[in-house]
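R.M. (postdoc): so does anyone remember the format we settled on? I'll just put the structure tokens first.
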């Protein structure tokens, strides 16, 4: 089953982070996302471009609705013609499978 069709699972502080091998395998399904490390925390980030602010705003609202539906919340930076979305799992301070699921679902909203 593709990542975009999966559901996030409840995550807790002792949930496992994705391994290096899982990262390598999962990132193949979301090739436009870039693993980033900020303050020692691994995250997934992607920048989306739009023709204007209104389209970017509408997309950021869709991402917000996804976040509420999955009860998994990213960082969303809204700019003129651009939205940057960053997924990571706050509870574990890194990447969980949920982040890859939500990244794939974010892509499917285009």
């Amino acid at each position: 089953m593709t990542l975009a069709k999966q559901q996030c699972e409840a995550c807790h502080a002792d949930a496992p982070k994705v391994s290096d091998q899982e990262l390598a395998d999962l990132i193949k399904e979301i090739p436009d996302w870039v693993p980033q490390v900020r303050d020692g925390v691994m995250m997934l980030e992607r920048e989306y471009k739009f023709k204007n602010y209104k389209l970017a705003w509408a997309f950021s609202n869709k991402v917000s609705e996804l976040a509420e539906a999955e009860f998994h919340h990213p960082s969303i930076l809204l700019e003129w013609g651009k939205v940057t979305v960053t997924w990571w799992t706050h509870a574990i301070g890194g990447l969980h499978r949920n982040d890859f699921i939500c990244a794939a679902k974010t892509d499917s909203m285009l």
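R.M.: ...and that's the designed sequence above, right after the tokens. Also worth knowing: Residues 53 and 79 are 7 Å apart (CA to CA). The longest strand covers residues 41-49.
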